[in-house]
């Protein structure tokens, strides 16, 4: 039976680099990334390895996944896992970074921002609708409260994601 371990994420919108560094540290201790998990990552026991990790945000259909992966493999990166348009790659230390300049880094975050924005807008709308229905029809207090509790983390995540797409001088690129 393979040993598994869970590592909680600090939130990719807030501490992506820190998460990737922690995954590297865990690999050096013999716990390599296996897959995404709810609010974190599943690790599996393996031989200790020196690895670096990087994440890419790109909505790739199943038919294009092999071609997408080959592009990274040609640069020395191996796809470890994917989920909901997020793909984590690993490589040996010293491999050229996936993103080496500010403009391509901002493009990466712009791709993730769109998905976060759509979910945030949907939950914000449902929150406002449920509050309106509460006052107009007497809808239970619990429904607007539920939507508010769900919406707040998305709003904070969207704000952090949006901040990452802003250029050096605060202008969106």
TrEMBL record:
The chain crosses the membrane at residues 116-136, 142-161. The keyword Transmembrane helix applies. Keywords: Membrane, Transmembrane, Transmembrane helix. InterPro entries: DUF2812. It comes from the Bacteria. This is DUF2812 domain-containing protein. It comes from Bacillus mojavensis.
């Amino acid at each position: 039976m393979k040993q598994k371990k869970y590592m909680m994420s600090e939130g990719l919108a807030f501490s992506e680099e820190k998460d990737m560094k922690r995954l590297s540290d865990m690999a050096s201790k013999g716990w390599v990334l296996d897959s995404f998990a709810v609010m974190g990552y599943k690790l599996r026991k393996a031989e200790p390895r020196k690895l670096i990790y990087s994440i890419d945000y790109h909505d790739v259909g199943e038919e294009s996944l092999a071609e997408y992966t080959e592009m990274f493999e040609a640069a020395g990166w191996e796809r470890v896992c994917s989920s909901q348009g997020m793909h984590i790659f690993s490589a040996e230390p010293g491999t050229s970074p996936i993103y080496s300049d500010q403009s391509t880094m901002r493009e990466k975050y712009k791709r993730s921002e769109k998905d976060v924005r759509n979910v945030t807008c949907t939950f914000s709308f449902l929150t406002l609708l449920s509050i309106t229905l509460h006052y107009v029809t007497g809808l239970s207090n619990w429904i607007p409260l539920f939507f508010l509790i769900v919406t707040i983390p998305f709003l904070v995540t969207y704000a952090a994601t949006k901040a990452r797409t802003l250029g050096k001088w605060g202008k969106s690129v």
